[in-house]
Amino acid sequence: MLDLTYEAPKPKTIAGAKHDWELVIGLEVHAQISSKAKLFSGASTEFGAEPNSNVSFIDAAMPGMLPVINEYCVEQAVRTGLGLNAQINLWSAFDRKNYFYPDLPQGYQISQLYHPIVGEGEVLVDIAPGVARLVRIERIHIEQDAGKSIHDMDPNMSFVDLNRTGVALMEIVSRPDIRGPEEAAAFVTKLRQIMRYLGTCDGNMQSGSLRADVNLSICRPGAYEKYQETQDFSHLGTRCEIKNMNSMRFIQQAIEVEARRQIAIVEAGGEVEQETRLFDPDKGETRSMRSKEEAHDYRYFPDPDLLPLELEQAWVDEIKASLPELPDAKKARFMGDYGLTEYDASVLTADVESAAYFEAVAKGRDGKMAANWVINELFGRLRKESHPIAESPVSPAQLGGIIDLIQKGDISGKIAKDLFEIVYTDGGDPAQIVVDRGMKQVTDTGAIEAAVDKIIAENPAQVAKAKDNPRLAGWFVGQVMKATGGKANPKVVNQLVSQKLAE
Amino acid sequence: MSIDQTTAARIAKLARIKVEEDALPELAEEFNAILGFIEQLNEVDVEGVEPMTSVTPQRLKQRADEVTDGNQQAAILANAPDAREGFFAVPKVME
C-alpha cells in the first residue's frame, strides 16, 4: 500500500483592525447511531413519524420505568471508535446530566461524562491533494437525544414531540486542532465519510442525524504553537461554544462570524466571556444563550439505574476484524493499484458505492481510463439529474463494455461519448448497439486511404499550404473524419494524412 | 464544605422546587447534615478498593435492536395538561 505523506495546511488568518489573528477550533459532533430502536427503549427511531408515536413509557419518563441498553448501539460506538483508531474502554459507565427543558421529560440526559466508552483517537482530515490535518479525538461517549420543541405553531405555546427523545447519539469530541472554517467543515465531512463506511451513522444532516457544536477562540500568530508545545491552554484565548449546527455551510459561517466578533471585542480592549452562543443564519450573527447559562450547572452523577458497561476484549477484537476497508486505506490502494492521482482517488472513495462501482469498472481494465469515465462522464451525467450512484442507469458492466470497445479500437473516444449517452438513456449492450447502429470505427486502411486521397485531390491549394506549414495537416484530418461520419480511426487518419502530404 | 442560604436557594431553583424564603435556613441546615454524613464516610480509607456498583454479582443487561414499543400516542399524552394535534402543548419556551 502507498504510504502517503501530507503537509499540514496553513491556519486561517483573519486581519483585524490592529493585527492578524488565528483561530483555534474544537468540535463536538453529535452523530445519531443508525439503530432501529432507541438507546434504552424499544421505541422506533424512524424519522418523520406522527408526533409522539415513537415513544415508550421509558422515553416519556413515566414513574417506575427502567432503561435497558440496546446492544447494537454499544457495538456501533465501538465500531466508530475503532474506525477512528481510538482506544476502546472495556469499562465505561453512565451518568445523569441534569437540566430542565420541556423536551427532556426525565429532567436529565443519560450520558457518559466520567467514563466514556471510547478514548483518544485521531482522524486525518483531507484538505487538498498532499495537504491534510491530523485532528486528535479526545473521546466518544454514548448518550440520549432530547425531543423536539416547535415554537412557531402557536403564538403562546410551544409544541413538544418526544419521537427523538432517547434516540442513541455518539458525541465525538475533538481536541482544539482545527484551524479554520474550511478545516472544520472538512473534519465533519471526514467523520461522516468514515461513519458511512462503517455503517454506524447515516450522516444525514437535514434530518438531524449529524449536528455539531463549535468551540472557538482566537489567538495571535505564534500562540497556538506555544500551546501545542506545552498543552497549556493559557496561551489561547477564551473560547465560546456555538451550539447545534446542522449544515456544513452554517458551521463555516458561524465560525467566520464568531471569530470576527471576538476579534472586535479584544481589539477594543475588552475580554471575551466564556459562554454558549447560538448562530442565527438569517441575521448572520451569533448571540448569547444566557438563559441556558444558569441551567448549565448540570450536577452530573452516576446513573443509579444502570450498571457499568463492561466489554470483553475478544468481542472488541471480533468487531475490529469485521471493519471494512476505510477511506484512507482505500484511497491509498486506488492510487497504488490503479495509478490514480490523489484527487481522482479521493473523488472515487468519497463513498462506498462510488468506490465499488469504480472497482467493478476498473477490474481487468486500464485504471486511469476507468477513473476518467466514471468521474467525468458518469458522475457528470448523474449530477445533471441529481441521481445518486445507486440509481445509475448505466451499470459497471455496461460502462466497462464501452471502455473495452475503445481499447479494441472499435470506436473512437468521441463516438464512445455518443454511445455512453445512448446506453444512459436507452440501455442495452454497448457492443450490440455499435453493431446495430453502424458506429464501428473504420480501421480498414484502404477505405480511409481512399477518403484521404479524395480530400487531397479536391484541395490542391490547401495541399500546397500544408507543405510549408505542417500544422495544417489537422484540417485534412478533420475533413476525413467528417467524410467518414467520425467513424474513421483517428490514429490511422493522422498517419495517412501526414504520409500523403509528405509525398 | 458548608451550604449557605444562597446556595440552598440556587439548588432549589435548579431542581425547580419552590422554597419560601423563610424555609431556606432549615433547608440549608438539612443539606449540611447530609454533607456531614458524607464527610464522615470520607474518613474511611478506600484506597485500592473497587467501587461496588451492585449488591448482587450481575452485569448490565442488554437488549437486541428490535422495535417492541411505541405507537401509543394517546397513552403518552393521557396525562398532559394540554395536548394539541398529537403534541404536548406547553407555555412558550424560546431561546
TrEMBL record, chain A:
PROSITE patterns linked to this entry: GATB
Domain called Asn/Gln amidotransferase: residue spans: 356-501
Keywords assigned: ATP-binding, Ligase, Nucleotide-binding, Protein biosynthesis
Coiled coil start-end: none
Catalytic activity entry: L-glutamyl-tRNA(Gln) + L-glutamine + ATP + H2O = L-glutaminyl-tRNA(Gln) + L-glutamate + ADP + phosphate + H(+); L-aspartyl-tRNA(Asn) + L-glutamine + ATP + H2O = L-asparaginyl-tRNA(Asn) + L-glutamate + ADP + phosphate + 2 H(+)
Transmembrane segments: none
Classification via InterPro entries: Asn/Gln-tRNA_amidoTrfase_suB/E, Asn/Gln-tRNA_Trfase_suB/E_cat, Asn/Gln_amidotransferase, Asn/Gln_tRNA_amidoTrase-B-like, GatB, GatB_C_1, GatB_Yqey_C_2, Gln-tRNA_amidoTrfase_suB_CS
EC number: 6.3.5.-
Source domain of life: Bacteria
Pfam families assigned: GatB_N, GatB_Yqey
GO biological process: glutaminyl-tRNAGln biosynthesis via transamidation; translation
Entry-linked Gene3D superfamilies: 1.10.10.410, GatB domain, N-terminal subdomain (1.10.150.380)
Molecular-function annotations in GO: ATP binding; glutaminyl-tRNA synthase (glutamine-hydrolyzing) activity
Subunit structure: Heterotrimer of A, B and C subunits.
Family according to the record: Belongs to the GatB/GatE family. GatB subfamily.
HAMAP family hit by this protein: GatB
Function noted in UniProt: Allows the formation of correctly charged Asn-tRNA(Asn) or Gln-tRNA(Gln) through the transamidation of misacylated Asp-tRNA(Asn) or Glu-tRNA(Gln) in organisms which lack either or both of asparaginyl-tRNA or glutaminyl-tRNA synthetases. The reaction takes place in the presence of glutamine and ATP through an activated phospho-Asp-tRNA(Asn) or phospho-Glu-tRNA(Gln).
Protein name: Aspartyl/glutamyl-tRNA(Asn/Gln) amidotransferase subunit B
Native source species: Pontibaca salina
UniProtKB/TrEMBL annotation, chain B:
One BP term from GO: regulation of translational fidelity
Keywords for this protein: ATP-binding, Ligase, Nucleotide-binding, Protein biosynthesis
Classification via InterPro entries: Asp/Glu-ADT_sf_sub_c (IPR036113), GatC (IPR003837)
SUPFAM superfamilies, per the entry: Glu-tRNAGln amidotransferase C subunit
Reactions catalysed: L-glutamyl-tRNA(Gln) + L-glutamine + ATP + H2O = L-glutaminyl-tRNA(Gln) + L-glutamate + ADP + phosphate + H(+); L-aspartyl-tRNA(Asn) + L-glutamine + ATP + H2O = L-asparaginyl-tRNA(Asn) + L-glutamate + ADP + phosphate + 2 H(+)
EC number: 6.3.5.-
Alphabetized GO MF terms: ATP binding; glutaminyl-tRNA synthase (glutamine-hydrolyzing) activity
Pfam families linked: GatC (PF02686)
Family: Belongs to the GatC family.
Subunit structure: Heterotrimer of A, B and C subunits.
Role played: Allows the formation of correctly charged Asn-tRNA(Asn) or Gln-tRNA(Gln) through the transamidation of misacylated Asp-tRNA(Asn) or Glu-tRNA(Gln) in organisms which lack either or both of asparaginyl-tRNA or glutaminyl-tRNA synthetases. The reaction takes place in the presence of glutamine and ATP through an activated phospho-Asp-tRNA(Asn) or phospho-Glu-tRNA(Gln).
HAMAP family, per the entry: GatC
Identification of the protein by name: Aspartyl/glutamyl-tRNA(Asn/Gln) amidotransferase subunit C
Source organism of this protein record: Pontibaca salina
